[in-house]
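Reproducibility note. Readers wishing to regenerate the assembly model reported in the main text can use the exact inputs given here. Chain order matters: entities are listed in the order in which they were concatenated for prediction.
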Amino acid sequence: MVKEIERYGIPIVHIATITTISTSVGANRIMPAVAIPYPVGNPKLSPAEEKAMRYELVDKALKTLETSINEQTIF
Amino acid sequence: MSERFKVVYYVNQFFGQIGGEDKASMEPEVHESTVGPALGFNGLIKDSGDVVATIICGDNYFNEHKADALEKITSIIKKYNPDVFVAGPAFNAGRYGMACGEIGKYVFEQFKIPVVTGMYKENPGVDVCRQQAIIIETGDSAAAMRKALPVMAKIVTKLVNGEELGSPSEEGYIPQGTHKTVIVDKRGSQRAVDMMLARLKGQEFETEMPMPVFDRVDPAPAVKDIRKATIALVTSGGIVPVLNPDHIESASATKFGKYDISGMDGLSPKDFKTIHGGYDPVYANEDPNRVAPLDILKQYEKDGKIGKVFENYYVTTGTGTAVANSVKFGVEIGAQLKAAGVDAVILTST
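Running the prediction on these inputs yields the following structure tokens for the assembly.
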């Protein structure tokens, strides 16, 4: 799905735990996720800490979208 | 003198020579004559069998009224009591392939007779009936009809005679994913080492298990001003509205959902849940934002760090979902995002 959306020229970042799969299928902007059942969460943290962590992850994701790349990149 | 075998043959409105898209809503009809490919097929089996009935049904009708269509087809099969059911070939026609696949699977399971059809390997219908039917591999358009029918006829004849089929590559059908134990001279470790040595020497070797090859897309240009950008959120993590109104599957998804999240501050556990069958759902059901971070994206919008969050959120289930379907979803979603002027996308996977 990531590749087909990108084919329209829309920058897209794939947040995924198994970055090797993302790479072999061909996503260009790849960001490692926290874990499979909670890619952008962490139930071990308190709700406030978890939200703060997610805030940082989204910041990172947006930064990947602002970054020019020439090849597949794991951020 | 042995009995001649009986075939019931299924075609869509186009191959049944009723009409094109304008007739795609026609209900199933049965003809005791042979029409279209059924006629050609009948000629190929004439030494030992006959097509006793041809069912013609509209592709839209089938896909939109599956239960009714299957009911009608059930009564037709009961009436004619065939030894084998043949459908298509559908080549790369998606709706037709889905119809052949669904009907083929159903007939196999209900009537326990062999089912043979034909499709291009990327037809979404392949994954529907791969285990239940023998799907001969065809080209991607009806230009391949001439080559397809004899292969189908040969396989049908073998099946009704109780003959075992050779390997997919020998007989021309799409692998069913079944593993057959065969005795070979060399054990696995020797074959692996032989393959490795050949590879190191730059010699040719044949893999025992072909890996899929994926193409590459040029990286899309970076977003110029993220503070003005419309960002869309997509996930393969299966976070859907609690009633799963679009019945998205827990695995091997055949569809995606699109939901208006413009009035929301995040994905509330009261309104959303996960239906993805491939990971422990506890954490996502406590807080769906852990899979698709709508809460934070909305916060960014409020804080002026992005222009806005796109009003539609897209979701499907990633586990076991056919590559062909995933491509289809990506193409459709991408088209919608492009048309709406979305600037960038965050896609999360579990």
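We highlight two features of this model. The mean pLDDT of chain A is 95. The CA atoms of residues 31 and 75 of chain A lie 5 Å apart.
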